[in-house]
Amino acid sequence: MKKEILIAQVILDHYHAKLDHLFDYLIPEHMQTLIQPGMQVTVPFGRNNRLTEAFVMSIKCRQKMDQPLKELAHISEEAYVMTAAQIEMVRWMKKSYLCRYIEGIRCFVPNHRTGKKKVIWVHCQLESEELAEQQIKMKRAPMQQKVLEALQEIRHAPLASLLKMTGAPNSAVKALAAKGFITISEEITRRNPFKDSVTTPYPEPRLTHFQERAMMLIRGHWEKKPEIPVLLHGITGSGKTEIYLQLIKRTLAQQQDSILLVPEIALTPQMVQRFRGRFGDQVAVLHSHLSEGEKLDEWGRIRRGEARIVIGPRSAIFAPCQNLGIIIIDEEHEHTYKSEQAPRYHATEIARQRCRLEKAQLLLGSATPSLESYHEAEHQKILLVELKERAAGGRLPQVEVVDLRKEAREGNRTLFSRSLIAALEHCLGKKHQAILLLNRRAFATLVMCPQCGYVAKCSQCDISMKWHRKERVLKCHYCGRREPVPESCPMCGELVSFQGAGTQKVEEGLQLLFPDHVVARMDQDVTRQKGSHQAILERFEAKEIDLLVGTQMIAKGLDFPNVTVVGILLADTSLNLPDFRAAEKTFQLMTQVAGRAGRGMQEGKVILQTFQPDHYAVHLSAIQDYHRFYQEEMQIRQRFLYPPFSRLIQVTFWSESEEAVAKAAHHSAAAVRFILEKSGYGEHLEEVMEPGPALIAKIENRYRYTLLMKSVKIPFHLMRKTVKYLLMDGRDRYISPMVTVTVDPDPRIVG
Ligand SMILES: Nc1ncnc2c1ncn2[C@@H]1O[C@H](COP(=O)(O)OP(=O)(O)OP(=O)(O)O)[C@@H](O)[C@H]1O
Ligand SMILES: [Zn+2]
């Protein structure tokens, strides 16, 4: 009988585009019983057969070989083996996000180069009486005496700390070991990211009536339809965290793993504290502030099932849980769940795929769900469960909208309206605290009228137009439309370009207004250092800070019952972003930050300052009417065919030469249109928009152009395939080597 030939199909551990495909290697006989898909191997590659790391994606059987093949060199036995589900996910990611195999693989198998950390321990071998005796005998060796004295209490200690504690030299320890009084051992220790923090227990409260009901609905639903996700829409302060805790407790009881995603872990120390307070060491955190060693160790604990609860930002969705029971995504609407680098995945999509493949359950939670998720709930693709009351008893804060146009007409051109100052005085008088939000992400220069609040918008896209200083025109960066800069406001009077003030200016202004109170600022400038977020939040919690000023990083998740006033200094900064999600983002941000007020027993008050008090996102967030906002916004999305009524693909071109980048963008658009026309979609070519300079037209001296495609009539997968075929695989024909191209299917940030 003829023997079968076993062939491993591998992906090389290389990021080069030309190597992004499967390579066949013969599996030598002695490996045939050992090898499995998902394993890490070493293969000879290239003309001089350099040994290269690779991953086995599949194994196939052949009767004969079509061509001579090289043999696998080695199986890395200690390395992580991807599961079948993970291999399938990698294939799916490649197709969906147009990334390379290795980029997908590296999400699941991090490139941990640091080995395990070894620590030398000293163990005392003497019983306490004996020890005391020896100590007396050792008068002439005071250093050895000191070491023994230290060990009397603690019995075991890492060598390094023992030496530090006693001031003794290493020779003293060696001498003691030679006498047999102590032993020395080398041990692998876990680098614990929580080693310096104290965990206070977080006792389980009695669920409120509404929480109880929500739990029942969720559990009942999953008993019948475990594959259908749940959207938990709970108002701010409604106690969603407690629902997460309880669901995870059940999962734990079934010996299964849980993943809880949070938008940004540094901003949510309270969440981690609560989970550690309830579940202790079974909680692992994965995030970018951990050292490589800490990351590796946490990863190992998860893989071995020692830590069954994983908390982390979007990348934690790839945690190596081997028996996944549930994934919970808190603040599911947050844009941080979308990766802005290859692979450009969305954590919620990955979660869905993982849950499907690993038979786990998925819960999305938010006070302001993304339109996409709510839309799915409306169409029964996910189950909507609502929490409409605050858990701790308080009510939602009252919101006062302040019209800054009126304030200006009446002579107050400062950043602080009279209502805001009055509210802050009242708040501080009662020894309460306040949060002030200034969203500074206003990098686009807009044309706006401070008299009436008018903003120049594109008539085709309903997006605010960007002012191009050099060319003296207004441009829509979606469709490329150009318009002259109006000399005067078409609504009333004079036009000025709008400039937002920074948080630092606000901080200074507040300190002048309230010289006897402590003002602090939290934004990216102050929090670049590791742990500084937490330090500020701890001071705020300890009431050492009265007024906290910040960017949107203070809007989320914070739960401080003593905060009774929230000031939103300028709602317009995010409202005027040239992004079709600007209204949605504003509504979410306003609602979230307003939700920080009055979470305890005292009533909260919110002052929302704006030039556009009549904008639906502003007044609907003021009355906290999510449902009406959803309906209004959906009408606009439908009229202009934005997601969820279309799917977008964004191609970005980068180059140091503006000419090259413009040429590449235009050639690419033409090529894509040409193919789509050939495929029979000639009537819908307007779905491939005119390319133009990106919202941030130049970064680090490299010019950026974007090409946006809006799939409505042209099928999304066809568009995606066309883009991949032309602009990625065949890019050399249309695009100069000076230009870098990135493709983002379903972009979250457009521009
Ligand atoms: N069953 C309960 N009984 C008493 N207090 C509760 C209960 N559940 C939650 N709380 C308290 O209610 C407060 C708000 O809860 P939590 O922080 O979970 O709100 P949330 O829904 O996550 O809100 P947000 O979206 O604003 O972050 C917390 O201080 C929490 O301790
Ligand atoms: Zn336009």
Automatic annotation (TrEMBL):
The GO molecular function terms of this record are: 3'-5' DNA helicase activity; ATP binding; DNA binding; hydrolase activity; zinc ion binding
Q: Where does Zn(2+) 1 bind?
A: C449, C452, C489, C492
Instruction: Identify the keywords attached in UniProt to this record, alphabetized.
Output: ATP-binding, DNA replication, DNA-binding, Helicase, Hydrolase, Isomerase, Metal-binding, Nucleotide-binding, Primosome, Zinc
Pfam families membership: DEAD, Helicase_C, PriA_3primeBD, PriA_C, Zn_ribbon_PriA
Cofactors demanded by this protein: Zn(2+)
State the free-text cofactor note: Binds 2 zinc ions per subunit.
Domain Helicase C-terminal, by residue range, is 484-642
Q: Which residues bind Zn(2+) 2?
A: C458, C461, C476, C479
Q: Which reaction is recorded as catalysed by this protein? A: Couples ATP hydrolysis with the unwinding of duplex DNA by translocating in the 3'-5' direction; ATP + H2O = ADP + phosphate + H(+)
PROSITE patterns documented for this protein: HELICASE_ATP_BIND_1, HELICASE_CTER
Q: Which residues form the Helicase ATP-binding domain?
A: 221-387
Give an example GO cellular component term for this record.
primosome complex
Q: Which InterPro entries match?
A: DEAD/DEAH_box_helicase_dom, Helicase_ATP-bd, Helicase_C-like, P-loop_NTPase, PriA, PriA_3primeBD, PriA_3primeBD_sf, PriA_C
- Gene Ontology terms: biological process: DNA recombination; DNA replication initiation; DNA replication, synthesis of primer; double-strand break repair
Cite the EC number.
5.6.2.4
- Any idea what job this protein has? Initiates the restart of stalled replication forks, which reloads the replicative helicase on sites other than the origin of replication. Recognizes and binds to abandoned replication forks and remodels them to uncover a helicase loading site. Promotes assembly of the primosome at these replication forks.
Q: Which family does it belong to?
A: Belongs to the helicase family. PriA subfamily.
Q: Per its UniProt record, what HAMAP family does this chain match?
A: PriA
Q: Which NCBIfam families match?
A: priA
| Assembly and binders | Component of the replication restart primosome.
Q: Kindly provide the name given to this protein in its UniProt entry.
A: Replication restart protein PriA
Species of origin reads Anoxynatronum buryatiense
User: Lineage of this protein's species?
Assistant: Bacteria, Bacillati, Bacillota, Clostridia, Eubacteriales
Which gene carries the instructions for this protein?
priA
